[in-house]
Structures are given as structure tokens and as C-alpha cells.
Amino acid sequence: MSGYGRSNFTWNGTLRELQTSSPASCKERARPAMAASASSSGVEVLLSNLQNLGDIESTLNILNVLDELLSAGTDRRIHYMISKGGSEALLTAMVKSARSFNPNYTLLLPLLHLLAKVGYRDRRIGMKAQNADAVRLTLSLLRQNSKHPRRAAACLWVLQVYCSSVSTANLLGECRAIDVIYRLICPYTTKTLHTIKAAIDALAALLCTKANVHSAVSKGYVAGLLRLYEDWSSKDTEHVAIAIRCALLRCLHEVTNSTAGRHALVAHGGIGLLYEVTQTCLFTKGLESLVDPSVQLMRKCYPKSTLPLKSDLSVYCLELPRQPGSVPAPEPELNGEEDSEEEDDEEDDSNESEEADSKDYDDDLETDPDKLRSRPAPDRPPELLAQYSRLRPELTYEFQELDSSSSEPEDCSSSSSDEEVQSSAEDASRLKPSDFNSCPTFRTKGRDARGNHGPREQREEEGAEEGAEEAQRRRTMVDTLAERHIGAGIPHHDRRLYRAAAVLAKSIPGFNILAFPDFWGHLPPPGNEPMPPRKPKVQRQKVFEDIQRLLNPDDVINEVVFDLEDPSPQCSSERSNSLKFFSKFESGNLRKATQVRRNEYDLILNADANCSQHTQWFYFEVSNMVANVPYRFNVINCEKTNSQFNYGMQPVLYSVREALEGRPHWKRTGTEICYYRNHFCAARGKKRSTFYTLTFTVTFRHNDDVCYLAYHYPYTYSALQSHLMVLHRSVDPSKVFFRQQVLCQTLSGNPCPLVTITACPATRGMRDLHQFRSRPCIVLTARVHPGESNASWVMKGTLEFLCSDDPVAQSLREAFVFKIIPMLNPDGVINGTHRCSLSGEDLNRQWCKPDPVLSPTIYHAKGFLYYLNSTGSTPLVFCDYHGHSRKKNVFLYGCSIKETLWQSGSDTGGLKEDPGYRTIPKTLDRLAPAFSFNSCNYQVEKSRSATARVVVWREIGVLRSYTMESTYNGCDQGIYKGLQTGTRELQDMGVKFCHSLLSVRRNVPSLYSSRRLVDHIDLDHNSHNCFEDDEPPCVEEIEYSTDGLSKLKGSDLDSDINGNTSSGDEQEEEEEVVVHKGFNPIRRCEGQSHQSSLRSRLFPHLIGHDLEVIEVLHMKRNSCNGVGITGRQYLS
Ligand SMILES: [Zn+2]
What is the DSSP string of 875-913? Predict the structure, then answer.
């Protein structure tokens, strides 16, 4: 067999000769490396000769060699070639060759192929093509060759790679390339599939610019593409054209990046069409790849609709004292240009509420050791600190009655509450069990002892005597229940105390109804609650259901069944077949519920008070259910971009009936749970607003039960108050010094408690009293973020442990004075907010300069810390308890100068630092199964400079200043791995935290070896930003924005090009190939090794002939750049 290539592969001369006679180099100033000097690599020599375009044979030979080089090995070779001016050389050669009077396609075709392959990896190919005047030329080649499928395909690939530059794509658009290419996309056929695919890919590439999309939309191509997709989908029964169908979807995706494109798709019935086609794909193996892109496309084009609310602003608003300017200004109403093109550019990610504002003055905090080390000036004059001496009652207490038990609380509210308890208990009377059945919306009222009534009672009160009777009946029911079930085996819970506390809690709407679970109390359910595995494709199924609302509007009920602002519909219409909702109680959050379909409800959460965002926490009552029917709930105005609900977390449910039958449990519940971006936007049409749906399905066990659903185990302010009263009663006053005081009043007038716990001195002797009064302080705070109820459960564990008889607790009390502020944001907790205080601000971003009026709890907590500091009692440890919604496990954030500098890439230059900040996390790692040392981080982030942790570390000088983050979900390590956390585990964490404090006792032999505690710890210098989500990407796309469509980008240009010579449908081009005598590409490839068959595709005429040369090339490749050719050996 006489191969064309072999016999003509004659390069008469040596590389050196080539180098010296290289004339092209001088004008290629953009490519200094091209000058074929003695140090030039073989590639440079080849490129230099290529663009000289000598005789056809030598040019083909150069192309052969280049292609062989590039086909083997990795992309590194191509990038090397690009760095040596490969793209320019190919463009120059292509331009020269194409401009000749009668272009020789024997040369041009491989040139175009190679250009496409190289250009595919050259990010600047578009600009280079423009500089070489190749753009219009390639397009005109395409025009001339539209009847030659292989030539057309080659041109299309090159055009496609040009479009990596927006300006080149626009230039092509101006030259009407879109029309030329669009016309090449024909309806279903079995011929020239390669070329059609290349045309669709090129069109998709062209549609990367707004101008081109605009042009395509205005010419009606959206409808055309939809028709093409339908045609190919219906006729491609053998599924041989999946790649073409996929490419058509990609075009549709590109064209719907504009509002007009999306509107056009919807207007031409695109969603229905896609839905139908997708349903047929679902059950066909091999068509899976079409389903996700179709679903994403439908989600993207689903018409935006505003949340059905009058205003985004919270229903709960409080007029703030002082400066009206300090009220967060309502965001300006946006004008009518909803949804403009700009939204396509990037998605709003500003709702990462963890990342809040940073202060200018701390701009270089993370990199400047002096700034990290320096202590900012106090925010108030020292004379203001004296007021806090009252918060150290242990220093002035005389213990005269050390042996009696009369340590009464000073100004805690328990005495007045006790009276309430008495009076309401006296009212108790009989209650029949049937009372429950007749009153499904059982709630226990809080204020009735004071003569106030709930909204229903208030309405009735105006005209009817029955109102009072109803109120009386309800009160007796509550009281009787409380009487009958006193204690009921729930430790540290007293219902009468709870109700008494609730009566005093001040809320914006004036709650007068208690949620049953808070009143009744709860016990952790027996056994563990594993994270349920995610149901495969659950999100896809939910999205299909959502799309059906649009396609079958007749099935949609769309009836409001609950509205916090308008109590009429759910009460008046007495719709017997819908669920009933209620949330007007302490910590409740549900703004609106709409019955969408028979067993499906859309729920809208209430924004934080005086604010229009931070929706996450929910807690509401649901009743009137039918047993064993799956109800789908959709919380449609979630804000965070991802959620642990995508990773095994379930909401919690409490059943009143179950509780009355002796099983008072909050249980993880819900199936088919997922969290994904939806099509809603803010009520006022905020352009960039994005919402996410949390969907879950609940099947209730009992008919007509009353159930409560919540984001996490609720823990109300009243629960804290009653718990403190119970604790106070429980301690032995001769041993435990327990004082509950009021740190300050909150904005709405609720007392913020501060608790002191320490051991009473053994005797009144000087020595004991001295030891007692010189104990170091440990300051613990929690629940600055109201939605983080997990923090309260951890704090509950801490408080109970510190008051307990446990010898470790006794030892801790003897070593330390605990100053605990268990709820820094009572107002937020009471009003069911998630993040903020009633001033609409995140209190954990106010620590730098807290406002005494708007952020009183922070102002006084900081003042108290200043006071401790000023009296030489700087706390040994400070820890603020939080909950984390996007991570598993429990972990600490601390503060370290060294690690901050490390992580910001700054020089630590022999900096010495006390490693004591690691003692507690290291100890917890050994003691607490839920704790994850690897999740801890000690970076002082600029964005956190106003948090409690950083300010207490920097300004008060507390070395061990922490934020403790507890998951809402569960653990992915340790003995709790795969389990969701319950209140038992959370409380245990609070106990374990206390245990860890033993490791920082002064002058006390530690339970834990001190050597082990200060073990050198390997620092993970590569640790990611600790404040971000550390979950792997969700199995299903939460987003539908363009960058989430990676699945569609898989079009493999290389294999398309390689296939261009081997597809059997292009017989008509045989004459092009026939030039190479005896060549049959298809047959040739058979039996070859995979690699050589790949090699043969571009240059079929080489097969079997130059393989030895190639092998030499491969063996001689320079290990440095992977492509180097040492000329002589290869050529000689
Ligand atoms: Zn928090």
C-alpha cells in the first residue's frame, strides 16, 4: 500500500537549516518566541514553517506532525503550542490558504480541524481570529460550503471556538452568522448529523452575547428551536440523535438568558412542550441526560410571580424610641422595569447573612498584626461602669445565714409570678376528656388570668356573653390539665410557672395564647433519629408538580386559609376540608398559608420585626387534618442559597394527642424533603430578590389532631424564665450560690436575665471568703439570634449541670463564678424572628459600638464585661452559644492572631502567641461526641469584627473568647454519625462544654493531663473559609441560573472533530478524501489500537506509515513542556 503521507514525508534538510532559513519570524512581533533561534523548540520551527505555507506536501506534513503531537498526551501540549503562537500560525495559514483563487480543501480541511482543536483551548482565539482577519473569512467559507457537510462542519467548529470572545461573537452576529447557521439546522433526518450538531453548537456559542440573543429572539428563532426540538424528539425513536437534542436544549438555554427569550419560550408553549417531551424521556434509558437540562429550562422560564403579600415588611412592627433616622429605612419601591436584562449577569449572593457588614476602620484587620493586637479605645467613659457592680452580688454577700436557706432572688420576677400561679391554680376546675375532642384548636391561653382575651374571644366579647363563657371554659381546661398532669415526668418543667412567665412576656402583637408544646413541655423521644436518605430525584418530582400548577390551572385551589394580617378567611369560611393554621403565639412564625391543591399548602414566613428579610425560623400550629393522608407543605420564601434540609435534616413535629397519651415528644418528621430555588420574587418587585422553597410532606397519625411544626425544637423566652425559676428552687442554697438578676430591659420592656452561679464558701472564715471572692469569672451568653433555638437547649444543659450535684459541677463552682446571660435577644425570641432584634438589626454585629437604646442587651453585656475588666476580673473564658444552619456537628470559632495572619497569607514572622485558646476545643474534641475539632477555626475575620467573640477578645482581652456553633441537623462523625441531633444531645453538649472548662482551672490539678491538652496541633493551613457551607454540592441543582448548567456544557468538540472523517453519512465528500489513494478511513480504523485510531482521524492518509516517526517523537518528548522535539533525531 503506498501511502500518500509516507512517500512524501521528505524534509530535505536538518532543523538547523530550517532555523536559519526561517523568514516568517521577523514580522511576528507578538510572538517573540517564534523567532527560530538556536534555542527554539521543534514546535516553534514547525509553526514558523506552517505559516509560510510552502508546497502542499510539506504543509500537510507539518499539520500531520502537529496533530500527532497534540492528539497524544494531555492538553498541556496544546497549551504549550498556544504559548508558542500556535493559534496565530494556524490562523495565518488558514487565511492564506483560503484566500487563494481556488482553495485546496485537502489542506484547508485539516487546517480547520486543527484550528478548532487548538482554538478550543485558547481563551483568546476570538481576538486572535479578528486580528488575523479570519472571522469573516471563515464565515464566507461556511457560506460557500453549505452544501458540503464536512467542510461546513469544520467551518462551524472554528466559528464556535471564535465565540469564546464576546466581541468576536458580536462581530459574527453583525455578519448575519446566526441566520446562516440557523438555516443549516434542519428538521429530523438521519443524514449529516455531524454537521447539524456542529451548526447547533455554533449557534449556541453565538448566543453567548445579549445582542445575538436579542437578534435570535426578534427573528422568532425561539419558536423555531422549540419546533425543532419537538420534531427531533418525536421522530428520533431509535435515540441515535440524543446529542442533537441535547444541543438544541443548550441553544434554548442560551436564548432564554434574556427576559424576551423566556417570554418567547413561554408564549410559544415551550413549558408544556418541554414537560411533555420530558415525561416521555423519564422512563427511557439513555434519555436521562435530557431530563435535567429540560427541568432546569422549565424552572428558568417559569414566569416570575411576586409573593402574595401586600408588603415584604414584617407584620410585626414596633415604633422605635429616639432617632427616627435609626429605623431601618424601608427599601425604596422599585420602578416598573421588573426583571431587566441585568439580572442575567449574576445572581445575588448578598443574602449570606452570616457575612455581614464590615467596618471600614478594620479593613486590614486580617493582615495587620498591629491592628489585631491593638485594643480599641473603650466605647464609653469609665464612670458609666460603676452601675454594673450590682451584677456581682457574690462580692457583697455576707453569708450570715450560711446555714439557713434564705437566698432569695433580688429582683427576679419569680415572686410576682408565683402569685399569678397561685391565683390561676385556684381557678382550676373540672375538665372532661371530651372537651379536647370538641375543641381541636386546643391552645392554652396565657393572659386569661389578667382578664385579657385572644382575638377570637375579643371579637366575641363585643356582642356576646358566650365569649366570656368560652374564655372561662378554656381557662378551666388549661388549669385542670395543669392540675391533673403536674410534673408529668418532665424534668425542670413546671406548667404553672410556664404560664405565669408567659403572662409577663411582652410581644408586639400582644400574644395571649400559648402554644401547647411550650406549655406542656416535652421529652426527647426514645431512640435515635437518623437522617433519612434523600429520595432519588425528589426535587425533580417536586418541580414537576410545581410546573403542573402552570399547565393545569384548573387544579389549583389557591385559597388563603391563614393570614396573620387578616384573620377573617380561616375563621369565617369554616372550610371543613382544609387544614387550619395558627401562629400567633410566643416564638410562632407563619405569616400566611394558601391551600394550593387538595393536600398541598404554600406557606409564607414572616420577616424579622421591623425588617423585610431573614426568613428561616418557623413554628406554627396545624389542625383539622385527616389521618394517613400525605400533606405537602412548601415554605416558599426561604432566603439562604442552600440548607441542611438538602442533607438529611427534617423539621420537627409535636402532636397534642400523642402528648396527652403520654408521649410528649418533638419528633423529626417529614418525607420528600428538599430545598431549591423557586420562581417567586419579593412582593415589591425587588429586582434581584431570590427565594427558595423548602418542601416537605407530613402524614399525620390521627384525625383531628392538633400538631405543631417547627424549624427546630422551640425554646421560648417564657421557657427560659420558668426554667430559671425551677432551677432556683432546685438548688441547695447552702451549697450553690444562685442569683437571677436583670441585666437590663429590652426594647419592648422584657427583662433580660443574668444568672450568677458559683459555690457558696464552705465557712465564713476569712480564707474561704477570700477564695470565694477571688474566683475567676466565666461569662456565657446565648440566643442572640432568636432562630437558633438549639443554642438555648445547649444553654439549658449548661445551666442544669452547673446547678447539679455532680462532683464536676461542684468542682467547677468552687473554681469559678459563672456569669450567664442565657438569652441576649428575648424580644426576638418572643416575636418569632430569626436573626434580628426589634430594631431590625443583627445584634451580633453591634458589639463594637452598641446603641444603649436600640441594642440595650448588647450595650449592657459589653458594659458588664468592661466592668469586670476594669476591676481586674477579666473573664477567663467567654463563650456565645449559637446554632449553625449549614453545617453538621458542634464546633467553636475562636480568635488567634497567628492563624488569622496565616489564613490571610501574611507573614507571621516569629510571632509568639499563647496557644491557650486551643485548650477548650482540644478537650471538647475528646469529651463531646458531637464536637468536631476539624470544623473549628480561629480566624479573626474582618466581617466578624463586630461580633461578641471578636470584640470580647480584642477589647476586653479575653484570650479564650468563642462562638459555639451547634448544628440544627446532626453529625457526620463520631458516635452520632448519621443521626439528627435532639434536645438530649444538645443539652449534653452544654454539659460537655462545662466539663471542658476543667482544663482551664488555675492551680487545680486537672482531670485531664495538661501535657495532652497542650499537645502541638498540626495546623491546617489550607483550611477553607470556615464560615461557609462545607457540604458537597447537592445532588440536584438548587439553582437554575446559567452557571448551574454545567451538565450541558459537556459537548466534546474533540470527539466531534475526530468523528468528522469516520461518519458514514458523508459519502458525497468522498471525492475530497479520494485524493489520498487507497484511503478508507472507516476500514482503516478498525483493528487499530484506540490511540492510533484517534491519531488517524485527522490525518487518515498517515495511517500505518509514519507511526515509527511518531513513536520516536513520543519517546523524545521533552519532559519539561511535554511537547519538545529534538529536531535532528526526529528528522534524520
Ligand atoms: Zn448565630
Answer: -SEEEEEEEESS--SEEEE---HHHHHHHTT---TT---
The CA distance from 9 to 636, in Å, is: 69
Q: Report residue 331 as a C-alpha cell.
A: 427599601
Catalytic residue status for 1031: no
* Cβ–Cβ < 8 Å for 685, 312: no
**681 close to 691: Cβ distance less than 8 angstroms:** yes
Ligand 1 centroid – CA 305 distance (Å): 31
Q: How far is the CA of 843 from the centre of ligand 1 (A)?
A: 10
State in Å: Cα 966 to ligand 1 middle.
Answer: 9
Cα–chain center distance at 53: 55
Sign of the Cα pseudo-torsion (450, 455, 460, 462, in order): positive
Tally Cβ neighbours within 10 Å of residue 607.
28
- Could you read off the pLDDT of 174-224 as tens digits, one per residue? 999 999 999 999 888 888 888 999 999 999 999 999 999 999 999 999 999
In the beta sheet, which residues pair with residue 602?
Answer: 594, 634
Burial 495-529 (b: 16+ CB within 10 A, else e): bbbbbbbbbbbbbbeebbbbbbbbbbbbbbbeeeb
Query: How far is residue 274's CA from residue 315's CA, in Å, rounded to a whole number?
Result: 40
Q: Using one digit for the tens of pLDDT, what is the confidence trace for 394-443?
A: 998 888 766 544 444 444 333 333 333 333 333 332 233 333 333 334 45
pLDDT at 373: 76
Backbone angles phi, psi at 470, to 5 degrees: -60, -45
CA pair distance 882, 886, nearest whole angstrom: 12
Which of these ranges, 291-300, 343-352, 579-588, 607-616, has the smallest mean pLDDT? Answer: 343-352
Residue 284 has which C-alpha cell?
Answer: 427511557
Q: Rounded to the nearest whole angstrom, what is the distance from the C-alpha of residue 522 to the centroid of ligand 1?
A: 24
Nearest residue to 979 via CA among 545, 643, 397, 527: 527
Q: Which amino acid is at 174?
A: E
Pair 500, 421: CB distance under 8 Å: yes
Expressed in angstroms and rounded, the spacing between residue 98 Cα and the centre of ligand 1 is: 66
Per-position DSSP letters for 254-322, written without gaps between them: HHTTSHHHHHHHHHTTHHHHHHHHHHHHHTSTT-HHHHHHHHHHHHHHSPPEE-S-S-SS-S---PPSS
Model confidence pLDDT, tens digit, residues 279-330:
988 888 888 889 999 999 999 999 999 999 988 899 998 888 865 444 444 4
* SS3 sequence of 811-851: HHHHHCEEEEECCCCHHHHHCCCCCCCCCCCCHHHCCCCCC
Q: How far is the CA of 602 from the centre of ligand 1 (A)?
A: 27
- Give residue 902's pLDDT: 84
- Ligand 1 centroid – CA 786 distance (Å): 8
CB 201 within 8 A of CB 1051: yes
Neighbour-count burial of 774, counting CB atoms closer than 10 A to its CB (0-12 exposed, 13-18 middle, 19+ buried) = exposed
Q: Ligand 1 centroid vs 201 CA: distance in angstroms? A: 47
Strand 817-821 to 777-782 pairing = parallel
Distance CA 201, CA 152 (A): 13
Which listed residue (366, 841, 965, 1066) is catalytic?
A: 965
What separation in Å is there between the alpha carbon of 836 and the centre of ligand 1?
10
